[in-house]
Request: fold
Amino acid sequence: MAKVKGISILEILILFFFITYLLLPILAIIIFSISDTWGVGDPLPRSFTLKWYINSFMNKDLLISIGRSMFISFISVIIGLIIILPTAYIVRCNLRSLEPLVRFFTLFPYVLPGVILALGLIQIYSKPPFPIAGTIYILLFAYIAISLPFMYFVISNSLQSIDVKTLTEASQSLGAGMIDTFFRVIIPNITPGIINASLLTFAGLLGEYTLVNLLLGARFKTLQVYLYTAMNTEGHTASVLTVIYFIMVSIVSFVVIRVVRGIIGEKKEIPVLK
Amino acid sequence: MIKVISYFKNNFINILLILPFFILCLMFLLLPAINLIKGSFTDMNGNFVGLSNYYAVVTRRYYQISIINSLNISIISSIAGLIVGLLTSYVLLRITERSKNLLLIFTNVTSNFAGIPLAFGYIILLGTNGIITMFLLKKLGIDLYQNFSLYSVTGIAIAYLYFQIPLATLLIFPSFFAIKKEWQEASLSLGASEFYFWRKVGIPILTPGIIATFVILFANALGAYVTPQALTNGTFNIITLRLAHFLTSEVNPDYNKADALAVILGVLLVFSLVINLKMNKRSQLWQK
Reply:
């Protein structure tokens, strides 16, 4: 397309609308988190304070909820990686005939949003042979299952870009076994992809509320569960927690963008995790 | 048969290593889906009852409204999101590479804000005592809540737009690359106006991409749960909140009716996905 140097006022207005729309709710929460006295009916607060932040950092329940979220997300990502790395490599290299079947499963998150998945899971796992409904295991398995398609997608794309077949053949012709090839040749070559898949999945799970709420309710208070309760009872704490959460996931986003340049162009085919 | 056995023999270790993936997908994705479909055709004791669960769901006013509300909000927010996404993509193509990248990063980062934070932000902005509500009332004398509520179809659609606009932009933006600079130059040099070029060449090339994006936005809005739940505290009547209600609020939930409602939602989503895949294939023809 032709690049035009100057852009018109209309185009500036469109950009302005776009940026403002995305920025306003974030700004509102930041303002709320540092507001002190707020007169009845005033659009903006009269004075500002950092006391909500200090209170929140001494709030044990809040800190533990962040810890819980990080813990379950981290474990899910690690188990997910352990499952998906060999799967993606083997499907790419040796069992190409299984690729359509794997692709079929990667489409599932599109048609099984959290609400539907939770409804199905509760009915199956409330009774024998696997009565795990209401325990943390059902949440863990559900988290891994919904992460697998996305992780497969990113890892599989990385494997495609390094010509994994040639690398494997070269490594094996030099006498390396399958395990050596996998850990010392393939893994180091797709590190950016692994980091990318792990971080994005981690951030996605940190923001997960549907499954944890519907499967475990208040039995497992994650960051999002805490946030939801606090939003209706102690708004200032909720706003501080939102700011902390947003900083956490923004850092993840920035790292991902640094590690994998050009990820934005690929976004088209990446399934939406949320 | 012998072929199958020898296939398994030769690939024994490989198959063993990929088994966990398939077991997990089977147990926690496929099985729940199959179970829902089965449940929607049976009664509590597992006896086949034909379409009676569906009939009950479709004819009860309460569920009817939830389906209508879901479709309404999804269509409104998808169309509005698509229009803004198209305009933004068009502008993104005309600004410098550097500012374009910055904006795309900004879009990516803010997409983390969907869900509870988003609902919270909107309540602070547009709730009955919100910043914008109060600003309009006190400074300009406009009572926003006379014919608007954040907790209505329009209000929720405005909140949905927050995640629909970035998604639309990120999905539709690559479609614009299909329109070659040479084509525009050729048509302009042959005397066509800019408008004529877009009407006869640009828009037709973008159409498959636009449809593909629309159905994804539509599916995204239909499946949304957290934002409306947090915004209205679960009181708004849409399909996802109805389904959640079965799980959280009812003592002896009638799972079979819930299954039927879930399958209705699922079929709409499968339908959207199929259209998306078909249209994506078509739009990729141009991008080569």
